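Researcher: Sequence recovery benchmark, item below. Answer with residues only.
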């Protein structure tokens, strides 16, 4: 058990069932890996058949053009944040949460669901600008997002891209940009659609600090978990629709500014998830 406590997974291959370690051991190891890198991928967590059920639900909602609600996301050209009502999606969240419950309890104290939606990008979408989802304030709670791959995600489908370990400069980001002379006025970022293909101060800072870029390509049914503090973006989609079901959990503290908070319905406490009946 000590081995799993003190070692890390590879950030993009957190196979929590590998070698069948004790339940608490692999979830402690999972939490340590997440805290180190700010983003992890758990492969093959949910069955492809169940992923198809979720995707069918999302696409059916998107066809209901009169009632579908979309979140206001960064660079929404050929990219949609299609919100799912929490009561309809709670069964999906519960299935995922059950498998990583201890991880969530370690990483987030007294957490609740504050986002429940889907991220769909289509061929022709530009990469987003590099960003953090939230702005630092010491009184804020930690915000973590969980994205389920509803198809095999290849690099040419524009999966999530991250600068690993960049969450560690979250509270010093503005200070570091100023220290290195990376001011917005020095960059030509005047078009939301194409800004992602231009030179950007956030990416320049990551390069100066030698952060390693990670591409979150993975198999269908894999779970991508990322901190709102990590520097990331959705990539350029050159191939086909890239569907993700996601939800975000907020730990103890205030809601940080900056996130979309795409949610229809109440904010369920995670402690109540296991006791909520399946939506009919």
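Model:
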């Amino acid at each position: 058990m000590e081995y799993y406590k003190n070692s890390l997974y590879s950030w993009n291959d957190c196979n929590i069932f590998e070698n069948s370690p004790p339940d608490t051991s692999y979830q402690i190891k999972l939490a340590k890996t997440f805290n180190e890198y700010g983003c992890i991928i758990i492969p093959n967590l949910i069955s492809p058949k169940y992923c198809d059920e979720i995707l069918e639900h999302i696409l059916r909602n998107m066809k209901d053009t009169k009632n579908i609600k979309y979140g206001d996301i960064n660079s929404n050209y050929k990219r949609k944040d299609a919100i799912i009502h929490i009561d309809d999606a709670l069964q999906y969240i519960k299935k995922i949460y059950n498998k990583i419950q201890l991880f969530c309890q370690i990483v987030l104290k007294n957490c609740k669901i504050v986002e429940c939606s889907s991220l769909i990008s289509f061929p022709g979408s530009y990469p987003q600008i590099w960003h953090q989802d939230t702005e630092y304030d010491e009184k804020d709670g930690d915000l973590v997002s969980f994205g389920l791959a509803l198809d095999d995600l290849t690099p040419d489908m524009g999966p999530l891209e991250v600068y690993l370990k960049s969450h560690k400069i979250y509270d010093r980001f503005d200070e570091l940009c100023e220290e290195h002379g990376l001011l917005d006025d020095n960059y030509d970022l005047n078009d939301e659609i194409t800004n992602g293909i231009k030179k950007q101060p956030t990416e320049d800072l990551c390069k100066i600090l030698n952060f390693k870029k990670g591409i979150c390509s993975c198999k269908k049914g894999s779970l991508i978990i990322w901190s709102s503090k990590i520097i990331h973006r959705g990539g350029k989609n050159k191939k086909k629709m890239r569907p993700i079901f996601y939800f975000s959990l907020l730990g103890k503290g205030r809601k940080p500014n900056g996130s979309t908070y795409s949610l229809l319905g109440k904010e369920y406490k995670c402690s109540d998830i296991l006791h909520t009946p399946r939506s009919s």
